[in-house]
Amino acid sequence: MTDTARPSTPATAAAKHLKRRRAADGRFRYYGLSAILVALGALAILVLTIGSQALSAATYNVVRYDITLDPAVIAPDGATRPEDISRNVEGFYSLVRDNLLATFPEAQADRESRRELSDFATRLAVLPTARMVARNPELVGGAITLTAPLNDDLDLYLKGQGVRERKVKAGTVSVGQAGEDGLYALTGAGAFDPLLAALVVATDDLADDASAPGVLLTAGVSTGRLTNITSASARLELLTGQAQDFANARPVARIIVSPEAERTVSDHQIAWTLALKAMGRVDRVLRTTLLTNSDSTYPELAGGLSAIVGSLLTMLVTALVAMPIGILAAVYLEEFAPRNRITEFIEVNINNLAAVPSIVFGLLGAALYINFLGMPRSAPLVGGLVLALMTFPVVIIASRAALKAVPPSVRSGALAVGASQMQTVFHHVVPLAAPGMLTGAILGMARALGETAPLLLIGMVAFVGDVPKGPMDESTVMPVLIFSWSNNAERAWEPLTAALIVILLAFLLLMNGLVVFLRRKYERRW
Amino acid sequence: MLQQLGQLPMGWLLIALIAVFGSAAFFMGRVRAESLLVATNVRMHSRPNYHGYYVAMWTTVPIILIAIAYGIFAEDLTRSQLTRELPSSFDQLSQAELRSYLESVRLAAGTAASAGADRVFQAITNRYLELRGMVNAATLGLLGLLAAAGIFWAQNRLKPDFRARALVESGMELVLFLCAGVAIATTAGIVLSLLYESLQFFQKVSAWDFLTGTRWNAQTEAEFGALPLFFGTFMIALIAMLVAAPIGLFSAIFLSEYASPRARAWIKPILEILAGIPTVVYGFFALLVVAPAIRSAAIWVNETVIQLGLASEPILAAQPTSALAAGLVMGIMVIPFVSSLSDDVINAVPQTLRDAAYALGATKSETVKQVVVPAALPGIIAALLLAVSRAIGETMIVVMAAGKSARISMDPTSDLTTITVQIVSLMTGETGFDDPKTLSAFALGLVLFIVTLAFNVVALRVVKKYREKYD
Questions:
Q1: For helices B48-85 and B164-204, what crossing angle results, to 10°?
Q2: H helix or E strand, kind and range, residue B251
Q3: By the 8 A CB rule, do B349 and B376 touch?
Q4: Do the beta carbons of residue B423 and residue B219 sit within 8 Å?
């Protein structure tokens, strides 16, 4: 036979069809795999963005100030008691400001510069030192080193997040005399070539109508603004330090793309920060204040202690209410309840309660506890009671599953030796089901710990500067603080919020880890 | 003296008294039963411990009731008496002002350091403490009396043939029943509080206007047309389900039909992490990452469309917070709700059905599409319905990433508001409970409750009614 182009026979058609079906089969499997990958990828992106933000907030820059505790400032006449000293924030702060002004005398020139310099530390940052001195009055008159966190915008700048800049090393330059306009002439053959090349790149990124990027030149503790840059010369407007520092040094140029008016930090502030850093007075340390400070309006001072304590108090109330009630209700429904309309109605109720949106519980709490019973707003007691109502259906459902898992032979055995129903349940069944009930309860509590919406409605969103001492004090909780911080406009709150999220997730991880541990240790199969 | 009584930490004192009286009663009952045993030398019906529990029961239950009544009424009682005694200059104060004044009196009384305040305030604080002291003294007296009476009465009932155990056990069963009844009480509380406040609202605004009006402006003007909120809620839930339904369903199919047991053991818990992350974290993620990304994508689309000459002005709103951002992140959040439940029902489809399909020559995907999924369909639909109900009731993501402007717009990059967002913004203000603003939050809550309840009930019914039984 020679004709090769045979009409397709049923066999080849079937083979083609089979091939198509196999291809469809492969595609289907691929859809499933990509769905999983999308879900896992979303989780990974979430964890990575929050983790990287949190990591940048894990450390912060603090500045050391060597000050002398002048009694006339720290303890003026009639205010020498420890309480007065610890309250004398203004006195300590003026010492810090004087120290800064002594370090950078050029800032005394005008009001604006003084204000920019005094932004370096907030007033309240001296409070820990003031309290320390109040405890040790013998320090008054002596010299101490006061450590205060750097302003949050400058902190972000030092971490390379606040301002987009590009660093270029310039060549060796020599410095001329100051001109009549106060500018110095820098010269050096080819010294500015790398800078010019970088400037071209930086300007390319910009929109056409943007102003030219600013250039700062730093040598040691001195920094100046560069203008009229050519390959071999440039004019320097000294911002801080000595012009002679640039001579025979290889200064570092910083190209800052955004104009000064649009930044949160000025050229002067950058210059001073770099100088402090060059003096070795800036240290990047672990931000332990996140766990030891309470909320503040200044990001560099803010911490989550009051919210952590508030969360613990709230969870305590929730646990004390939801766990016993939930477990006892489960025991009743599983072991005692006769099959009738009432118990059926209760079961329907529990299943529906577990699916009611959490915010509805917040409305219930606002109407019942605050409006009707007149309980205080913002108190962990009320928050805990609201969360308890939310948690206890979860506890019931988990506890019932644990009770169901106990084999009937245990009950029959106990009843056979003459135990009453109550004795059977509480002496034999409940102890065997206890690990399962406990894990269910912990999972319910973990959900309650991350809950935000119902607590907003009962007023736990207020600013709380003090650590609550009891369940009736005004307080906030971690998720609500996360919400409040994420609403703040300043850029520095973002990493801080992420760090607080990591703390919250750590608590949740701890609770879930406990569940896994309990399951491993006590899980029994009958 | 009375003032000192008024400063007692009554909460802790009452708890301590209940514990002390309860244990004392238990030991007295037990000792009494043991002495009966020795004296009569007959076999008693119940062990001595049960006699102890019996006496303790009769002692603690009345005083616990007293303590609860104290917690509810003491403050109101003191305040109403104090209000009656206030000088006439206070008559012109409004209810809310009077309330906050009395609250400051209470706080000052608690710290006992009202030095520096004016004399009237100090006098009122002292009188408050006196009145409070009277209430406290009366409560403590009544409590002691009742406890003593309880011990005495129950002690006298103890006899060798007294059926203490049966009585204690029926008391215990009553406690268990009441605990289970908390579920009914909670539901009743939700329904009653929502209904009560909503009815007050509907006296001021007609229910028809509320449900069909298209202008919502509760904060500034009294405009309560909730249709834009319903639309926003629907739109965001729809976006969320467009993300969650395919991803969740395909994940479930892959996990149950394709993945090796080892991969399954790893992937399933990791997917469930998504359900365990607090929603405020998702909100932060939406605000920080997703919303800006969507905004710049929308701006890019606008520019491209204009450059291509397809439109003369921007076609997308490209706002900093958008329905799309909230919906996408919410979709990620509800993936595990879909995948876990679907996975369970797909796994419950018996292997014999699959084997039968394979025997007829079906490929794996054909088996899944034409045999397994149809068999599991009621469960899958229930999972989707529960996920929708979850998406409708979700609050924090939309509060942080969806915006606050009530409008009806099909553009997913514009900011839309939802029922839950409005409830939060209406309830976090400092307005009283008689304000229509606050009341409208309860009306919205009622709608939310009814809708989510309907979804849940339907989901449960679907599962129950259409479940195929293979045994």
A1: 30
A2: helix B227-253
A3: yes
A4: no
The three-state secondary structure class of B295 is: helix
Closest CA to B417 of B430, B431, B407: B407
Q: Which among A28, A39, A373 has the least Cβ separation from residue B274?
A: A39
- Which of B83, B190, B385 best probes binding to A when mutated, by most A CB atoms within 10 angstroms? B190
Each residue's pLDDT expressed in tens, for chain A with a length of 526 residues: 455 555 557 788 888 988 999 999 999 999 999 999 999 999 999 999 999 999 988 999 999 998 888 888 887 776 777 778 888 888 888 889 888 888 888 888 888 888 888 888 888 888 888 888 888 888 888 888 888 999 888 998 888 887 888 888 888 888 887 777 778 888 887 788 888 888 887 777 665 555 667 888 888 888 888 888 888 888 888 888 888 888 877 888 888 887 777 788 888 889 899 999 888 899 999 998 888 888 888 888 888 999 999 999 999 999 999 999 999 999 999 999 888 888 888 888 888 888 899 999 999 999 888 888 878 888 899 999 999 999 999 999 999 999 999 999 999 999 999 999 999 999 999 999 999 999 999 999 999 999 999 999 988 887 887 888 888 888 899 999 999 999 888 888 999 999 999 999 999 999 999 998 988 888 777 6
Strand partners of residue A255:
A166, A215
Among B180, B248, B395, the residue with its CB nearest the CB of A358 is B395
B73 — contact with chain A (CB < 8 Å)? no
A143-149 β-sheet, strand order: A143-149, A59-68, A282-286
**CA gap A400, A27 in Å, rounded:** 43
CB-closest option in A29, A325, A480 to B179: A325
| Alpha-carbon span B133 to B266, nearest angstrom | 62
Question: Tokens at residue B46, please?
Answer: 């119940």
Q: Contact B151/B59 with Cβ under 8 angstroms?
A: yes
Residue B226 phi, psi dihedral angles, 5° rounding: -90, 5
Beta bridge mates, A236: A184, A226
- Specify whether the CB–CB gap between A268 and A113 falls below 8 A: yes
**Nearest-CA neighbor of B424 among B268, B280, B271, B251?**
B280
Residue B81 contacts residue B131 (beta carbons within 8 Å)? yes
